Amino acid sequence: QVQLVESGGGLVQAGGSLRLSCVASGRTSSNYAMGWFRQAPGQEREFVSAISWSGGSTYYASSVKGRFTISRDSVKNTLYLQMNSLKPEDTAVYYCAAARVSSGRTIYLGEQQYEYWGQGTQVTVSS
What we know:
Blueprint: E1 2-7, E2 10-13, E3 18-26, E4 32-39, E5 46-51, E6 58-60, E7 68-73, E8 78-83, E9 92-100, E10 116-117, E11 121-126
Parallel strand pairs: 2-11
Antiparallel strand pairs: 1-3, 3-8, 4-5, 4-9, 5-6, 7-8, 9-10, 9-11
C-alpha cells in the first residue's frame, strides 16, 4: 500500500503561480509512475500531467502544456507540480496518483490505470 498526501493548494490571482507537492509513504520501494489529475465543480476528473518512474518521460494535457511542470524527487518520495500563469479555469481540486510499473519509462494518462490516490488539494484562481 502507498499513501499519498497532497499540499500546496490555495487561492491565487490569475497570472500567479503555485507549487503542489505530493508525498508518498508506505510501500515506496516499488517503482511507481505518477500523475496529477484535477476535478472542477460539476465536472469529471481530468488528466493534467504524468511522469515516469525514472522521471525521464513526462506528458501534459494540452490545456496546461507550457504553463505547468511535473517533476519528482525519488529520494524524498515527493511529486511536484509547478503551476505558472494560472487561469481561472485551472480552479479545481488537484489529485496525485500512483501506479506500479515495471518499466522506468512507462507513463499513464488514464485515471483507471492508477491504483493509489491522494485526498486532493484545492486550487482557486481568481480573475
